[in-house]
Amino acid sequence: MSTRALVDERILSSPYHSLIPRTNMNSFYQPENVGLTGLIIRLQREDIGEVARDDEALSFALELQLQELSIVETDIADHQFANKWLWQLDCDYKLALALSNLHHEADAALLTCTGCDSRFTRHQSFKAPCDRHFFCFECLANFFEYTIGDESLYPPKCCDIEISLDNVRKLLDDKLVARYEKKKIEYDTEPTKRTYCHGLKCNTFIPESSIENDVATCSDCGKRTCTICKEKAHRGDCPKDEDTQSLLDMAEKEGWQRCYNTKCHRVVALTIGFNHITYVSHTHGICVTKLTII
User: Fold this and answer.
1) pLDDT per residue over 75-122, tens digit each?
2) Which long-range contacts (CB under 8 A, 24 or more apart) does 137-140 make?
């Protein structure tokens, strides 16, 4: 009997030979058979080791058989690695596809800022009262900031619809809100009725709440400004008050007199009665003044 035949006989007589799958070599590479195939190869190695001790020629032949088993074992390991790599590649592809779908869905849900054209979520933007446009919080703040410095932008609008401060107050910085509210008082005052501090380095708008008897007091520098001539506050009637000057000219011609109370200065005319009268005025509080009509 040849050495090869003897080897085959020894292998076939092995109690582990029946464990070898009755299919072609492809079955060795199936994931479910990898463990079994490895066990068979290990057991056959042990059997070959026992047989190889008896005969030198047989030992050489069995060595060749071991080399074949090593090749098969390596091949199976390579296939197993390739299968795992392909499986991982498939998983990565599915994950990338899922993430891509999520990205497209998320991108479709983003809104475009009218100011900077960037994309933001609904919770990161303000919907203008026109119901057509959106502003990111930064552009919204810039809009109000620009309005403070440029009256032509007041009030801030989108599609000719005013953006009310009350609707965006919580989205703006407190300091910006305070500055805008102060500027709003100025813008809401008719230009011809506005008074600014006469101080060259100040020029701060003085609201009506800080004006008394035609004198405006600046809350920033404390200077007092005449609301009529817009210059430094002065005593007596303002020479630039045309209405007052016309009245005084008429009073002089008609012989009328003025109340000498500096907080009153009303013109009084005697039509009938005594020359000595007590004049009562409620225009500037209560003024009770005794006048002698000459």
Assistant:
1) 666 666 777 777 888 888 878 777 766 655 555 578 999 999 999 988
2) 137/171, 139/113, 139/114, 139/115, 140/115, 140/168, 140/171, 140/172
**Looking at the structure, do residues 98 and 121 belong to the same domain, yes or no?**
no
In whole angstroms, give the CA distance from residue 144 to residue 124.
Answer: 17
Residues 84 and 151 in one domain: no
Token code pair at residue 79: 């296939």
Beta bridge partners of 134: 113, 127
Dump pLDDT digits (tens) for 41-80: 566 656 655 555 555 655 655 565 666 666 666 766 666 6
Whether residues 7 and 104 fall in one domain: yes
Sign of the torsion formed by the C-alpha atoms of 39, 44, 49 and 50: positive
Whether residues 101 and 145 share a domain: the answer is no
- Is the CA virtual torsion 280, 281, 284, 290 positive or negative? negative
Q: Provide the whole-model pTM.
A: 0.51
Q: Are residues 27 and 87 in the same domain?
A: yes
Residue 126 structure tokens: 């303000």
Which residue range forms the structural domain that includes residue 16?
A: 3-108
